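Support case: calcium ion complex. Customer-provided input:
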Amino acid sequence: MKNAADAGDREASRRVLIVEDEVSLATLLAETVAAEGYDVSVLAEGGSVVDWVRRNAPAVVLLDLNLPDQDGFAICRDIRSFSSVPLIMITARVEEMDRLRGLEIGADDYICKPFRPREVLARVRALLRRAVDWRESRSDSVLSLDETRFEAYWKGIALDLTPVEFRLLQTLGQRPGRVFSRAQLLDAIYVDDRVVSDRTVDSHIKNLRKKIAESSGGDDPLSSVYGVGYKLEISTQRKT
Ligand code: CA
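Agent response - structure generated as follows:
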């Protein structure tokens, strides 16, 4: 009996899964993360990862890209087919393309070897905090979307959006704090196969930004991440 309960389990979970085949590195990571009070599990092979995630609903997954038996990208894709668990990709490949690929297949963050374990811990904490922020912001309804009517509200005020702007905000709003590439955003906003340039996204973002700022008296939750794409941040600071 696991399904509806999974999300609740994960919210409360302090379980962190580390997938890393280099034993010394895996041990170092596990010790660092466990010392902060997380419940750590380590897998050295890719083959059992997807099933493990299904059964255990971890709070965060740290996934090495280069595993002996399976490609980290494929594992990430499989996990994303059923779970939105925060996922940090660990890679020794520093090329920009890999960084993009990692983000496009649904990794929330990535970290390049060599790294300091404290850095990894900081990322884990940031992801967990972001997950909490998102739940809080949902209950505060900073952003609410009526998907059947294509209506969007920012802090309760209706935004006058075009369908493309609505889909853009909907996509970014599904995962606040996560960076989406222009290609990903194009896929989300145009359902047909029209040929448009990446710059199209920039101009829609610009308009969306203007509309949110105008309706809210200056809120600017959209930001660009140089060389990667865009993200939406929802502040949880409550009005007093
Ligand atoms: Ca490895």
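Residues 11 and 135 are 9 Å apart (CA to CA).

Case will auto-close in a few days if no follow-up is received.
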